[in-house]
TrEMBL record:
<dbReference type="InterPro" id="IPR007801">
    <property type="entry name" value="MbnB/TglH/ChrH"/>
</dbReference>
<protein>
    <submittedName>
        <fullName>DUF692 domain-containing protein</fullName>
    </submittedName>
</protein>
<dbReference type="Pfam" id="PF05114">
    <property type="entry name" value="MbnB_TglH_ChrH"/>
</dbReference>
<dbReference type="InterPro" id="IPR036237">
    <property type="entry name" value="Xyl_isomerase-like_sf"/>
</dbReference>
Length: 274
């Protein structure tokens, strides 16, 4: 299954299914909770047509303060009401002392941070009564590392029992910016825990710097890394992210078709399930 991030800019096109035909959709629940009127009707229409996964932005599980239980209660109700199949979040933090930073900041690769993150993930999983799929974020400078990123991720996954959301573009961006081998890094991850995959575009802003933008087509080297990656894992859903610089629907459909073709070729002997 190859899906597409659901955005209001092309809600009508996705509902009509004439120009774009994803297998499922994904959106951030906090962007749709407690809405009413026109957009609630639109949400119901799109969910009649597509299965849905949710990708959260606001749990900030790496923050020092306690998890926002009121927000988490709303999330649980939303996931249950709309029969959301997978709920994912980020190995990061985005607020401190209730100051919301509106960005995903990297965790320090240290054992105390890994234990903190794992405990918060366990707390949320126990409350939601479902595993979280945690995304490995793109970052532009490490913060006081005392262990490798791969060791940090393995500690969090092993201790929390969470799954992974594998964003192939993020790993390509990190490997380019921090000058390591993306495939060697990928091989160190607990790939049996991958619940699904994100694919997106980036922008190279200097000879030695790439920005993870979600506003450009997927680059050929990222397709190549994706093809290599899915040979290492069981079939899982794959999502195309495009958050701005929205192209013509035909262009997005071409990216979906290319991703589907790669998945079919590499997973043709498996049954893909969400």
């Amino acid at each position: 299954m190859v899906g597409l991030g659901f955005r209001r800019e092309f809600a009508e096109e996705m509902i009509s299914g004439e120009l774009i035909t994803p297998d499922f959709i994904e959106f951030a629940p906090e962007n749709w909770m407690n809405i009413g009127g026109y957009w609630k009707k639109m949400l119901h229409r799109v969910l009649e047509k597509y299965p849905v996964l949710c990708h959260g932005l606001s749990l900030s599980l790496g923050s020092p303060e306690e998890v926002d239980k009121t927000f988490l209660r709303y999330v649980k109700s939303f996931l249950e009401e709309y029969k959301v199949r997978i709920y994912s979040e980020h190995l990061s933090y985005s607020k401190c002392d209730n100051a919301h930073l509106y960005d995903l900041l990297p965790m320090p690769f240290r054992m105390d941070a890994a234990l903190h993150m794992a405990a918060r993930i366990q707390q949320v999983q126990d409350y939601l009564q479902r595993p979280l799929a945690m995304e490995i974020i793109s970052y532009y400078t490490p913060v006081a590392p005392e262990m490798s990123e791969a060791d940090f991720i393995n500690e969090v996954v092993q201790r929390s029992g969470c799954q992974l959301l594998l964003d192939v573009n993020n790993i390509y961006v990190n490997a380019f910016n921090h000058q390591y081998d993306a495939k060697a890094f990928m091989a160190q991850l607990p790939l049996d825990k991958v619940a699904y995959i994100h694919m997106a575009g980036h922008e190279q802003v200097s000879p030695d710097m790439i920005l993870d933008t979600h506003g450009h087509p997927i680059a050929d080297p990222v397709y190549e890394l994706f093809e290599w990656t899915i040979r290492q894992i069981r079939p899982v859903p794959v999502l195309l992210e495009r958050d701005f610089n929205i192209p013509q629907m035909q262009d997005l459909q071409e990216e979906l078709t290319r991703l589907k073709s790669i998945c079919h070729q590499q997973w043709k002997h498996h049954e893909l399930v969400a």
